[in-house]
Amino acid sequence: MKSRDVKKLTNNKLLIILPIIFYLMIMLYIAYRVKLLERRSNLSFLEEYYMGSRSMGGFVLAMTIIASYVSASSFIGGPAIAYNIGLGWVFLACIQTPTAFLTLGILGKKLAIISRKINGVTIIDYLKARYSSDIVVISGALLTLVFFIASMIAQFIGGARLIETVTGYNYTTGLVLFCLIVIIYTAFGGFRTVAITDAIQGVVMIIAAVCLFLKLYQVGGGMGNIVKDVAAINPDLLRPDSGGNLPIPYLLSFWVLVGVAILGLPQTTVRCMGFKDSKSMHNAMFIGTLVVGFLMIITHMIGFMSIPLMPGAEVGDKLIPMVSLKYLNPILVGIFIGGPLAAIMSTIDTMLIIASSAIVKDLYLNYFSKSKIINEKKIRTISTMTTLIIGFIVFFLSLNPPKLLVYINLFAFGGLEASFLCPILFGLYWRKANSTGAVLSMLSGVVSFIYLSYMKITVFETNQIVPAIIISILCFIIGSLLGKPEPEEKLKYFF
After folding, report:
1. Which residues are within 8 A (CB) of 378 and not within 5 positions of it... i.e. 6 or more apart?
2. How far is it, in rounded angstroms, from Cα 406 to Cα 423?
3. Residue 477 forms part of a structural domain
4. Do residues 190 and 274 make contact, with C-beta atoms less than 8 angstroms apart?
5. 485 in helix, strand or coil?
6. Which residue of 40, 78, 107, 307 has the fewest C-beta atoms within 10 A of its own C-beta?
7. In angstroms, rounded to a whole number, what is the distance separating the alpha carbons of residues 3 and 1?
8. Which CATH number fits the domain that encloses residue 81?
9. Cα dist from 453 to 244, 416, 446, 466, whole Å
10. Domain that holds residue 9
11. Which of 298, 232, 326 minimizes the C-alpha distance to 78?
């Protein structure tokens, strides 16, 4: 290679890296400023660190729900599958549009009122107050930790591969750079930092997705030409079932996995406990629904549009970074990469905070702390160290990555939904729900889902989450009808 070409390559790499570094530094600065604000306030550390003092307005609430939910699989893994399967996967992705509407509409107001009555800052706090069961609390905390670690591994791998592909540095270097930034600003900033950075990251996601979409639209000569080119390659890629690759039962089961069952995801439901007022909730429902729908269409259409523009490309998590490198100038590549990075970082920071709360708030304070009086300084140190330790555990588990992130993420989603959907939803809306039903539901749901997934067993060609949820619901109802009713004195907080 000539020295001129080497110099050009080096300059291009620098132009890509600088916007990424600038973006990451902004995240650290926000964490620093929020930390100063927290120290100057007289607020409870637990409520501030894990709930942001319940101060989220409509826009921040919408964006933090979106950012927590839209992850590496939406920006990297999903478009890669759309490249291989076609429009059918784009349609499938749009099932996720009502995420904010369903979460806030069904759970929002009631869960917010209850959390204030019981002074709860985690989903486990709610489950403890509703069922008064140590088994529910311990199981819930451990299951949260296990499946969050699985999901965070997918996000860490996505961030590292992104940096690896666009900068040319090796995977481990990208992983170290990415992990250090996310772990540090989350550990030291807490929930308020997560909420504020999520709002910024949500905006970055939208801008990045629109930029690449418009560029591919231009290069492809408009959507009409792109569709014609795809039809010439394989007309099945234009069919909703992708020529049989997406059976109708499998499509319908996704309405459960990424539709209704999202009500069982702790990372989104916990947001229902942290908004300021009803107006904020209603605004968030409107904004969140529009933004999620828009992002799902745009990001997955990028994968579809890449079919004729990147023929024969390696279908994997490097597809979207490769497309951006080919069609965007180096500075715009650096800016675009901020979108997937934002999606990944915003998902990780939420999960780190909730995983930390599962250990500190739900296990340590409930079962291991000898003092009934909370030592704010001690808890502050323990919470920060716990978040750091979890982050570094996930880092080490991410050193040997699998090929497609989306499937890891969907597995983690399914496990959380099978565990928490029934205890959360029935606990809010069914007076007869009790601890027996909650325990049976959680254990049967997660065991059946893991078994069916591991053995690759499908029922009528549906995703494994469908039979797992059905088993979970049946066990909850049977357990609640046979078990001891919850005392009326306690139920007054919930009905």
Report:
1. none
2. 26
3. no
4. no
5. coil
6. 40
7. 7
8. 1.20.1730.10
9. 21, 14, 10, 11
10. 3-417
11. 298
Res. 21: pLDDT tops 70: yes
**461 inside domain:** no
Task: Compute the Cα dihedral for 174, 385, 24, 70 and give only its sign.
Answer: positive
Task: In whole angstroms, give the CA distance from residue 62 to residue 100.
Answer: 7
Distance between CA atoms of 306 and 216, rounded to whole angstroms? 8
> Cα separation of 483 and 230, whole Å?
57
Question: Rounded to an integer, what is the distance from CA 177 to the centroid of its chain?
Answer: 21
- d(C-alpha 450, C-alpha 457), whole Å: 10
Q: How far apart are CA 192 and CA 491, in angstroms?
A: 31
Contact of 476 with 441, CB cutoff 8 Å: yes
Q: Which residues contact 250 (CB under 8 A, 6 or more apart)?
A: 461, 462, 463
Asked whether 50 and 204 are in contact (CB, 8 A), the reply is no
Cut 0.85: pTM above it = no
In a domain, residue 471? The reply is no
Distance CA(149)–CA(173), nearest Å, equals 21
Q: Which two structure tokens, joined as six digits, stand for 79?
A: 């478009």
Taking only the tens place, the pLDDT of each residue in 209-221 is 888 899 999 999 9
Question: In whole angstroms, what is the distance from residue 419 CA to residue 465 CA?
Answer: 11
- Report the alpha-carbon distance of residue 87 to residue 469 in Å, rounded: 28
Report the distance separating Cα 158 and Cα 77, nearest Å.
8
222-274 pLDDT, tens digit per residue, is: 999 999 999 999 999 999 888 888 888 888 888 888 788 888 888 778 777 76
| CB 127, CB 264: distance < 8 Å | no
Cβ(17)–Cβ(164) under 8 Å? no
386: amino acid identity, one letter: T
Q: Decide if 434 is inside a domain.
A: no
Cα 32-360-446 angle, rounded to 5 deg:
115
Q: Other C-beta atoms within 10 Å of 63: how many?
A: 28
DSSP tag of 56: B
The single residue listed with the structure tokens 């942001």 is: 52
Rounded CA gap, 417 and 113, in Å? 23
Six-digit token pair at 473? Answer: 């619901």
Q: Which amino acid is at 187?
A: A
pLDDT at 468 over 70: yes
pLDDT of residue 265: 85
How many distinct structural domains can be found in the chain?
1
SS3 assignment, position 369: coil
DSSP one-letter string for 241-254: TGGGTS-HHHHHHH
Mean of the pLDDT values across residues 331-343?
A: 73
Distance CA 478, CA 491 (A): 20
**Listed residue (450, 451, 444, 448) closest to 411, CA to CA:** 450
Contact 178, 396 (CB under 8 A): no
